Amino acid sequence: MSQSSSVPAEDRLDFKRILPIFAIVFVDLMGLTITIPFITYYAASFGADAVLIGLLQMAYPLMQFIGAPILGDLSQKYGRKPILIVSQIGTFAGFILLAFANSLWLLFLARLIDGFTGGNISTAQAAITDSTTPRTRTQALGLIGAAFGLGFILGPVISGIALNMSGNDYRVPSLIAAGFSLLALTLTTFIFKETLPPEARGTLSVPDKKISRLSRMIRAAQHPAVGVLLVLIFAQQLIFGGFERVISLFLLNRLGMSAANNAFIFLFVGIIAVLVQGVFVGKWSRRLGERKLIFLGMALLGVGLLLMAFTPPQAVSWYDRSELISELSAKEGTASIDLDTFTLPDGENKGWLGIGWLLVSLVPISVGGSVLQPSINSLITRRVEPVEVGAILGISAAFLSAANTLAPVISGVIFQLGGATMPFLLGGVAMVILLFVAQRQLVPNPRDSIVLEGAVSAVH
Questions:
Q1: pLDDT of residue 379
Q2: Helix (H) or strand (E) holding 4
């Protein structure tokens, strides 16, 4: 008898139903990640300073935060497929607008549209829930996590290649992103089968609708067992998200790196993140336990940020100042980069020390940032009753979304007022202080080891 036939039907994942959803999420995410390496440079070419760039980067997560519950509710009323189709049409339109934007306000409009329709990830997750049993749901959601990981690796690669081949024309990767969005739309229209039957639509009852999401977050933060963990997941994402949002500006000011170079820095970070989350974090968690792993992640992230703050101001060996200024000069008579805000290297001091130091500092940052979120969420699930897990993870996601919304503006203001290194210096110091506070506040809980033993025994 084969191993698959010996597994009960309710324990077997139906890959034929899941793979179209996986493909849709992966292709959709590719469109998003392609834009990450150059969007900062695109805004700078229209004269945006660090604060405006922070606001632009805030537009996507803010609208996603607003759009996700709206699209989720609509998908419950009208079905998953029509909402996915409509949202992907919006995403496609956002990328086309991004490609042909000739002013800063059009960049903002493109990101606002893309952010709102990007809230369709909640609809995709609902389709996963429709297509799985409680026993197979974790495996299916793990595949969605794998789609995210692959997207964050391949997106920057495609962006870097496109920018190199086009002479750093930001329209080219934008159009490629639109192409991936169109492909996702095609897959949804012709391959994806509706997962929510008509008789199940409009039946979702959201408890306590009168209580706002903010009120629920405040109430959850006061939870005696997990409140400190929720505050911690917000704080670490605020710091790590700030690093993600201003690293492009830092590379521009400190090392004179172009958008194409920037793409491969994001690839470097993405590979480390995927390796840590896909291979090592489970092993480290079993060996250390989530609580110690959280402390380790915080220490690594703090040290890495402090190291990055002291990156030597040495331009990369291939740096050409006039070429970089030409790349950042907006077309069609619009404003161009503000050289008072973005002080580029003069080109007299070029070499490998700066980029080498940067890559070394990125290792602890990437490892620390990669272990924190899954470790904190895992410990949260251990400290609540099984029936509370779904709700508390939803609150945790809300804290992450809030941090991702605030991080770009806060880091942009710090960059504007304090200079290129200040966001990393303050972030590193804040993380070290947060580590000492967490060691005092995040005390061991009897449920940690009890649930851990149960989980281990279940695996074996």
A1: 85
A2: helix 3-6
* Location of structure tokens 């609509």: 74
303/428 Cα distance (integer angstroms) = 6
Q: Is the pLDDT of residue 410 over 90?
A: yes
Query: Closest Cα to residue 183, out of 26, 67, 39, 19?
Result: 26
Q: What is the DSSP letter of 198?
A: G
Rounded Cα distance between 337 and 328, Å, is 6
> If DSSP codes are grouped into helix, strand and coil, which group holds residue 442?
coil
pLDDT at 456 over 50: no
Q: pLDDT category, 373, cuts 50, 70, 90? A: confident
Instruction: Evaluate if residue 312 carries a pLDDT over 90.
Output: yes
**DSSP assignment string, 363-408:** HHHHHHHHHHHHHHHHHHHHTS-GGGHHHHHHHHHHHHHHHHHHHH
At 361, the amino acid letter reads S
Burial 18-46 (b: 16+ CB within 10 A, else e): bebbbbbbbbbbbbbbbbbbbbbbbbbbb
Place of tokens 């710090």: 414
> Is CATH 1.20.59.10 the classification given to domain 11-192?
no
What tokens were used for 60?
């996507």
Domain residue limits, the chain: 11-192, 212-324+341-460
The architecture (CATH level 2) of 212-324+341-460 comes to: Up-down Bundle (1.20)
Nearest to 238 by CA among 378, 409, 65: 409
Quick: pLDDT tens for 83-129.
889 989 999 999 999 999 988 999 999 999 988 888 777 787 778 77
11-192 against 212-324+341-460: fold identical = yes
Q: Is 315 helix (H, G, I), strand (E, B) or coil?
A: strand
Which residues of 86-158 form beta strands (DSSP E)?
A: none
Q: pLDDT tens, 339-351?
A: 666 788 888 899 9
What mean pLDDT, rounded, does the chain reach? 83
The DSSP letter of residue 103 is: S
Q: Are 68 and 119 in contact (CB under 8 A)?
A: yes
